[in-house]
Records
---
Amino acid sequence: EGVTMGHVARLTISTIRKFLHFLQEAMPVRLKGIHLTNVVPFIDKILMLIKPFMKKELLEILHLHSKPETLYPFVQKECLIKELGGNAGSLMEIQKTFNQHMVDNRDFLIQLEKVKADESKRPGKPKDSGAIFGMEGNFKKLDID
């Protein structure tokens, strides 16, 4: 709801490629499925742009739902928000509960933010974004007369 082609136009191929690299290579969880609900009619055009950067395994777990009812075989209604026909409460209620939970655990979260890795103990040479994504964005504009 509210997504237009203008939103998609703001995404660069580079941004999409970096996001998919993170999703497929660096995210520390194993995905069982990706479900997009209330997809817009032009989703096929968006997928044509990003398919070259997606692994076959990711394409296999990607599910597009034009209406919430097609999501029910995958996710129990008790786990879905009210706006998707579920029983878990409205999105606003869940946001308020989450925000209150963050406030209640503020001290713990501040302490957690101070935890850092000792990079001197990490084996191997550190990888930077240039090694992964190339030299993109490092070129100056040339004015040719």
---
Amino acid sequence: MKKLILVIIILAFVICARSETTDITNSLFSFSQNDAVQPQPLTIPLTLIQSAASKGAVCLDGTLPGYHFHPGSGSGANSWLIQLEGGGWCNTIKSCVFRKTTRRGSSKFMEKQLPFTGILSNKAEENPDFFNWNRIKVRYCDGASFSGDSENESAQLQFRGQKIWLAAMDELMSKGMNKANQALLSGCSAGGVASIIHCDEFRNLFPQSTKVKCLSDAGFFLDAVDVSGGRTLRNLFGGVVNLQEVQKNLPQSCLSKLDPTSCFFPQNLIDHVQTPLFLLNAAYDAWQVHESLAPRSADPHGSWNDCKSNNAKCNSSQIQFLQDFRNQMLNDVKGFSSSSQTGLFINSCFAHCQSERQDTWFADDSPLIDNKPVAIAVGDWYFDRQAVKAIDCAYPCDTTCHNLVFNVHRSAIVDSNSQPSSDESFSMMYSHSTKLTYTGLYMLSVLLLITCSL
């Protein structure tokens, strides 16, 4: 197929070269500008919180934390959306020492500009309900979902996630958030865990007259059994909680019944959140498939490698294992979903962080449940336009998914217990992107031929 398309393109150029028309270049330029190139998203500069150091609110390496802020306008001038960045966790001294040499542990390595896409977009056609709000992305540099409070002097590590959270909120309140008439706290992945942990704290920043809700995207991490029968994620979370003393900032209503590690799992936290909360999650969350269900430590022979890289390569027994995982997720949200103030969007996709990406948040081919994309579902719930309890049918029924395909490039950071490093990086692309590339090449070749025939 690729060879055929290339032959067509070459043939088109040959024909064009022999044509007498003088508008070939302009025609091609017009096509690439108007049709092939997507508009560049808004990019927002990094702002460091200068007052943070005096409050002890610093990244793992002691540098200042930061955020990216785009002011609201018009009807959204007094509305505030806070997104807490995700990026895994560090659960040992070794993994945290490595982490402070990255943007996940030091503002020295953070990008100076970040694109605002998806729920952070400033375009109504990309983000219909929140495009003109004050939109903030708070950077993640503590390794414990903005919830730790301790230090390790010998390793020169500061575990100050809770203080970073408080310093960021203080900063934003001083910039006008104290006058908000409506606010939404969101977060993705580890930030999605943080948005659950801090949801009621966020509510308490505002008077009762302010409409306040929370959104957790890809933050519903399950205390699940891995493919070897172990509990990889429980071991990881246990290390995070103990190392960074996260229990100081978990709800006492949970700690009175369960151990601190259990209270770091969202499945055990959500019943203790009083503020309206929306759970957005893929039923076959890509990160959890890779790092909780079938990590290298649980699958040393790599029998899950093909399935992890592409869900289309999973065999029947692997699919059944993943269906059991989905069933556990649905069971864990049953009580939560019965409340009139909660919202759900659980689609049967192999995805992660669907509110951050434009193509999964709101686009022509966005994932749908009952013909409703994520952005509209969240908006309907936030503005009380409609109750949203959207749970997809089981895989593979959903043809609208943007399933992730992985090229895995693992870092060398593995702790002494062979736990997966939270700093393992993945090269990800959506499975339909290759099809789009071929389609684009084909369209370009046809356009060339048409242009030359004019």
---
Amino acid sequence: MKNDMTAIPFYINSIAGATVQRRTDRYSFGKHLHTSMEIYLIRSGTCSMDIGGTTIQCSKGDFVMIFPNVVHSFYLDGSGECTFYHIHFFTNLFARIIPSENTPVNLIHALLFASPACHRQTADSELEELTESVIRMYQSGAYSPAEINSLLLCLLMHVLHCSGWDGTVRSQPEFQEKYVSFALNYIENNYMHKILLEDIAKELHISSRYLGKLFTR
């Protein structure tokens, strides 16, 4: 049988960590960034986060998903405690999934375009159950990458649905502006390192030639 080169390799491990954490007494994790997607679901108490220059306060039931390469911090304002679900995973696999036939935008970009730095909402029962299932499966150690990737995909699709994205791109110029904005943000966050156009294009999952044309217009 001829190999299908469009197949999505769900056997690749995407998850970097999934756990329940508890922080107390003015805990603080300073500003940082990473290449993984990060999820918080607050179970009790309160906390604050600075994400892409915007400060948010979170309490029980708040779901926050922070996109890769976005500068952020996490801290407690008081001496109380905060308990939360915490997940890290890489997005490469899910950037190969096109959630709508109306546009070539992949799943990760659709989420990014709907909420540029992070997605925040009150967790509904489905989102809470999916988050718990990811952590439970990861903690068990008895899972295949395909199984946990399937849960992550369901979680991402549910978040996309909650974001209100209708599967269309309003206009070509607006679509292109999103790519340019992402590229400029990438440069700002990585300016201390050598940056090639090919590196940014790889993050966006588009050709470097196409990205180059956007910057010359």
